[in-house]
Write a structure and sequence with these properties.
Blueprint (H helix, E strand, L loop, with lengths): L6 H13 L21 E5 L2 E4 L4 E4 L17 H8 L10 H13 L5 E5 L2 H16 L3 E5 L16 H5 L10 H4 L2 E4 L4 H11 L3 E6 L15 H12 L2 E5 L12 H4 L6 E4 L10 E5 L1 H4 L18 H17 L2 H21 L5 E5 L2 E5 L8 H4 L4 H13 L2 E2 L8 E2 L6 H18 L1
Parallel strand pairs: 3-13, 5-6, 5-7, 7-8, 8-9
Antiparallel strand pairs: 1-2, 2-3, 4-10, 9-10, 11-12, 12-14
The structure holds pyridoxal-5'-phosphate.
The site of pyridoxal-5'-phosphate (PLP) has 15 residues, from helix 4.
């Protein structure tokens, strides 16, 4: 299945660069960190992507998280087609909005009420405003290496895209916007406790990824999430879990279910839309009722709750609930990571692996990655060579060392063997 040539991709990407900044609509897709130009995709099918030259790739990106069911799932596509026949948008209440909200409230432990938006970024900006409005406080604690969308106040040491490009915070964000954002080290329990001792009564919210996916996969150390829960309860601060990546991914009820720790509010995205643009935030009714029109914290959206997107989300979540693929997906993923680990060890390459459910990262770093400070030491040049070698062998990986790989239910044992075989060759070559 090796990739012969990408002539059309080159041509068409060059064309795109004339009219789209960098040729991409999101910098995470650019190949700046790995060299060369992105592959231009024609279509997806199950666990595969096909580029416009007709090459096939095993997809370990899944549109950066949404496609836990793979592409064109037979349970999802008919629901989208059915919804399309009724019209694309009404800007008025529909049945499907309530259906998806009920599903989310049913599946995600902390959610009593939920508001739909169009992206994870929108969910991020909304929860920050909500937490501030609810508590009457301004300060937000975030953790280095966590990404919560390109929200001004949260674009400080923000992981993945920003990390990859070496711009931890962005020009164009006025200092005033981030003046109330405190950035702490992920997994540093003592630093968190000290910060609350000093500033507890000023802190509106703590926001975090319960399993980080945006500095590569980084798991919470034992006691870390528990401590966040504890200090937030003690000081009346809102605990926000950003489950845009982990929601319906690391367990049906997300990381809050997997680790059995309930936040006050959570953000959702990616899987919730099954590939359509959906974000959401939800949690305790008492807090959610502070948003307009019940309360006075304003948040709105012309296309929010879009019926086509809702249909895609409903079909995806219903399929996940009925088929409960999580245990099998996790053991498949483990077989894959064990194979990658063995291949890296055989090639004599310093590495560590991190995984949670169906997300994982092979770090070119000898040290266990528990924080941004450690992830910053990854050998990104070696990753670039690994990425290119895998791409040439028909394996589509995230184009950055600081992104999570995602597996889907469609991945077969043969696919996994193929990925491991390709990695064995590539890792030998780049050793
Ligand atoms: C992807 C992501 C976001 C942003 O979502 P968009 O839909 O890209 O705006 C926010 N938080 C986390 C944890 C993410 O992985």
């Amino acid at each position: 299945m090796s990739v012969s040539q990408r002539v059309k991709s080159e041509e068409q990407f060059t064309r795109a660069m004339r009219v789209i900044p960098g040729g991409v609509n999101s910098p995470a897709r650019a190949f700046g960190a790995v060299g060369g130009h992105p592959v231009v995709i024609d279509r997806g099918e199950g666990q595969y992507l096909y580029d416009i030259d007709g090459n096939r790739y095993i997809d370990l990106v899944g549109s950066w998280g949404p496609h836990i069911l793979g592409h064109l799932h037979p349970r999802v596509m008919p629901r989208i087609e059915e919804a399309l026949k009724k019209g694309t948008s009404f800007g008025a209440p529909t049945l499907v909005e309530t259906e998806l909200a009920e599903l989310v409230a049913d599946l995600v432990p902390c959610v009593e009420k939920v508001r739909m938006v169009n992206s994870g970024t929108e969910a991020g900006m909304s929860v920050i405003r909500l937490a501030r409005g609810y508590t009457g406080r301004d300060k937000i604690i975030k953790f280095a290496g966590c990404y919560h969308g390109h929200v001004d106040s949260l674009l400080v040491q923000a992981g993945s895209g920003a990390l990859t490009l070496g711009t931890p915070s962005s020009p164009g964000v006025p200092q005033g916007c981030t003046a109330d954002t405190l950035v702490l080290e992920y997994n540093d329990i003592e630093q968190l406790k000290e910060t609350f001792v000093q500033l507890g009564d000023q802190i509106a919210a703590v926001i975090l990824e319960p399993v980080v996916g945006n500095m590569g996969v980084v798991l919470p150390e034992p006691g870390f999430l528990e401590t966040v829960r504890e200090v937030c309860t003690q000081h009346g601060s809102v605990f926000i879990m950003d489950e845009v990546m982990t929601g319906f991914r690391v367990a049906l009820g997300g990381a809050q279910q997997r680790f059995d720790i309930a936040p006050d509010i959570c953000m959702l995205g990616k899987v919730i839309g099954g590939g359509m643009p959906v974000g959401a935030y939800g949690g305790k009714a008492e807090i959610m009722d502070v948003i307009s029109p019940v309360g006075s914290v304003y948040q709105a959206g012309t296309l929010s709750g879009n019926p086509i997107a809702m249909a895609s989300g409903i079909a995806t979540l219903e399929c996940l609930r009925e088929t409960d693929p999580y245990a099998e997906l996790e053991s498949k993923t483990r077989r894959l990571t064990q194979g990658l680990g063995a291949a890296a060890a055989k090639a004599g390459l310093p590495h560590t692996l991190a995984e949670c459910g169906s997300m994982f990262t092979l770090f070119f770093n000898p040290e266990k990655v528990t924080s941004y400070a450690i992830s910053a030491k990854n050998d990104t040049a070696r990753f670039g060579r690994y990425f290119q070698g895998m791409l040439d062998r028909g394996i589509y990986l995230p184009c950055s060392q600081f992104e999570a790989n995602f597996t889907s239910v469609m991945l077969t044992d043969d696919d996994i063997d193929h990925v491991i075989q390709a990695a064995s060759e590539v890792l030998q070559e780049i050793g």
